[in-house]
Amino acid sequence: MDKLDDLVTKRGLSVFARIDHAAGANKIGKTPHPTQVLIFGNPQAGTPFME
Protein backbone atom coordinates (compact mmCIF):
# COMPACT_ATOMS: atom_id res chain seq x y z
CA MET A 1 0.00 0.00 0.00
CA ASP A 2 2.92 2.33 0.67
CA LYS A 3 4.09 1.86 -2.92
CA LEU A 4 0.65 2.71 -4.29
CA ASP A 5 0.43 5.75 -2.00
CA ASP A 6 3.82 6.97 -3.27
CA LEU A 7 2.88 6.38 -6.91
CA VAL A 8 -0.43 8.22 -6.57
CA THR A 9 1.28 11.17 -4.91
CA LYS A 10 4.07 11.30 -7.50
CA ARG A 11 1.44 11.44 -10.26
CA GLY A 12 -0.04 14.56 -8.71
CA LEU A 13 -3.15 13.00 -7.19
CA SER A 14 -4.37 13.62 -3.65
CA VAL A 15 -4.69 10.85 -1.08
CA PHE A 16 -7.88 11.61 0.84
CA ALA A 17 -7.91 8.63 3.20
CA ARG A 18 -6.21 5.38 4.05
CA ILE A 19 -8.49 2.98 5.87
CA ASP A 20 -7.20 -0.06 7.74
CA HIS A 21 -10.09 -2.53 7.77
CA ALA A 22 -8.03 -5.17 9.57
CA ALA A 23 -7.44 -2.82 12.51
CA GLY A 24 -11.18 -2.40 12.92
CA ALA A 25 -11.71 -6.16 12.83
CA ASN A 26 -8.97 -6.66 15.42
CA LYS A 27 -10.96 -4.46 17.82
CA ILE A 28 -13.74 -7.05 17.84
CA GLY A 29 -11.40 -10.01 18.22
CA LYS A 30 -11.18 -11.03 14.55
CA THR A 31 -7.88 -11.65 12.76
CA PRO A 32 -8.46 -11.03 9.04
CA HIS A 33 -5.84 -10.77 6.32
CA PRO A 34 -4.21 -7.34 6.17
CA THR A 35 -6.74 -5.21 4.32
CA GLN A 36 -6.47 -1.50 3.52
CA VAL A 37 -8.35 0.88 1.24
CA LEU A 38 -6.70 3.93 -0.31
CA ILE A 39 -9.04 6.70 -1.44
CA PHE A 40 -7.40 9.08 -3.88
CA GLY A 41 -8.25 11.39 -6.73
CA ASN A 42 -7.94 14.76 -8.33
CA PRO A 43 -10.26 17.36 -6.77
CA GLN A 44 -10.05 19.63 -9.80
CA ALA A 45 -11.21 16.85 -12.14
CA GLY A 46 -13.58 15.05 -9.78
CA THR A 47 -15.51 17.91 -8.23
CA PRO A 48 -17.43 18.87 -11.41
CA PHE A 49 -18.70 15.27 -11.68
CA MET A 50 -19.95 15.34 -8.09
CA GLU A 51 -21.67 18.68 -8.57
Question: What is the count of β-strands?
Answer: 2
Most strands sheet: 2 strands, antiparallel
Strand order of the largest sheet: 1-2
Indicate the low-confidence ranges by residue numbers. Answer: none
Order of helices and strands: HEHEH
Number of helices: 3
Q: How much helicity do the residues have? A: 40-55%
| Computed structural class | alpha+beta
Portion in beta strands: 25-35%
C-alpha Rg, in Å? 14 Å
Write down the overall mean pLDDT.
91
Shape: elongated
Ends distance: 30 Å
Brief overview, please?
The protein is an alpha+beta fold and 51 residues long.
Model description:
With 51 residues, the protein is an alpha+beta fold. Helices cover 47% and strands 25% of the residues. The protein contains three helices and two strands. It has helices at 2-10, 21-27, 43-50, and strands spanning 14-20, 36-41. The chain has a two-stranded antiparallel sheet with strand order 1-2. The longest helix has 9 residues, at 2-10.
Record the SSE blueprint.
Layout: H1 2-10, E1 14-20, H2 21-27, E2 36-41, H3 43-50
Antiparallel strand pairs: 1-2
